[in-house]
Amino acid sequence: MILNALEVDPQRREKGPWRWYEQEMLDCCRPLSAVEKVGVTLSEFACLARCNGLHAEVVSPLQTIDHQRALRKFREDLKRANTTTGTLMALSYSRAALGQTGDGHFSPIAGYAEKDDMVLILDVARFKYPSYWVSVPDAWNSLLPLDKATGQPRGYSLLSLLPPSDPTSLAAPLSLTTLSLNKSSWATLNASFSKLLLSFAPSKPASEVLASIFAHLATLPTPALTARASSTASLPPLIARLQPTRLSALGVDSDSLAPLLIIALFSSTSNLLPLVPTEMREGISEMVREALDVGGEEVVKEVDVLKRQLAALGECCRAEEEGAQCGCSSPGAGDKTCAM
User: Is the pTM of this model over 0.85?
Assistant: First the structure.
């Protein structure tokens, strides 16, 4: 609902010529089958937002902070979401705390009546509850019950579009590929890559290191990177641009999309590159730069989309390892804010 309200292009068609988001498209952080059974946490919600081109500022209420100070920040953020074009708020709250049936739920905020201190919740389960007004203190208190999956309070997220100048903005040509990884499978794959990289002797040639990464990707039960259904005609020419490069030659027996993923994995902002021994790091970076130069603007844009998805998955995993909600901002406790 929020992605459609902000007019984010899903980069694929829903039905016929229409390009609107539907829930089946939100599969970058956890398998949809798992989401249908147990839902998502606030950190995973932020991960989904980040994967789909939004800036997500997440606030999780800590029960030890001053209640009145927390309420003041909540009201400030409600006013911000209600008066700032292109910014919306979503609540992760307990239905039971509002006297409703059920437990954890997500819904966007549709309005804020500052004079009456009331907030309008646009319930996404309209078959169960229509939109309804609740007092701001009641809305805040509905965020406090602990999420059974995380052991943390719930919270809310302020969502806005990334500016077109941001390299990870979706205000760009449609991507041709997409990661088939989710939060869990990425954590496993990232750990195996890290272990592999740390096992190499410093004298190992960079080409052998990358060849090992290609070989590891080839052993996965399902490809980590897949082509979008709409890219049948456009993708082969893009892949062909990379064929003359040394990087592509190392993965000659791998999936044809593997070089794109390797470039994203070993970009200058990657968390894997620092694990590579210094002696071979420049050799890997040189091959990545060569592939980007030869591939041209279209390859650069494609890799930027993959880097955004990898960053979102990595941020979500790191936040949960630290026992926090993803991008957690704690009102009244320093107000840390994480830009997703």
Answer: no
> H helices of 179-273, where?
183-198, 206-218, 235-242, 246-250, 258-265
SS (H, E, C) 25-41: HCCCCCCHHHHHHHCCC
Asked whether the beta carbons of 324 and 153 are under 8 A apart, the reply is no
Give the helix/strand (H/E) hosting 161.
Answer: strand 155-161
Distance, in Å, from the CA atom of 64 to the CA atom of 72, rounded to the nearest integer, reads 16
Report d(CA 9, CA 282) in Å as an integer. Answer: 37
Predicted pLDDT of residue 150: 80
Tell me the pairing of strands 54-59 and 328-329. parallel
131: helix, coil or strand?
coil
Q: Which helix (H) or strand (E) element contains residue 104?
A: strand 104-113
Q: Could you give the C-alpha distances from 217 to 14, 180, 247, 270, 304, in angstroms and in order? A: 30, 13, 14, 17, 20
Is the distance from CB of 215 to CB of 232 less than 8 angstroms?
no
Distant-in-sequence, close-in-space partners of 167: CB < 8 Å, separation ≥ 6: 304
Measured between alpha carbons, how far is 305 from 228 in angstroms, rounded to an integer? 13
Would residue 242 be called left, alpha or beta, if left means φ above 0 and alpha means ψ between -120 and 50 degrees? alpha
Is beta strand 54-59 parallel, antiparallel or unpaired with respect to 104-113? unpaired
Alpha-carbon span 137 to 118, nearest angstrom: 9
Pairwise CA distance, residues 257 & 222, whole Å: 13
What is the mean pLDDT for each group of 10 consecutive residues in the chain (340 residues)?
A: 76 60 64 66 82 83 74 95 92 94 91 96 86 95 89 90 61 71 81 90 90 92 85 87 92 85 90 85 93 94 85 66 42 35
Amino acid at site 49: A
Give Dmax (Cα) for the chain: 69
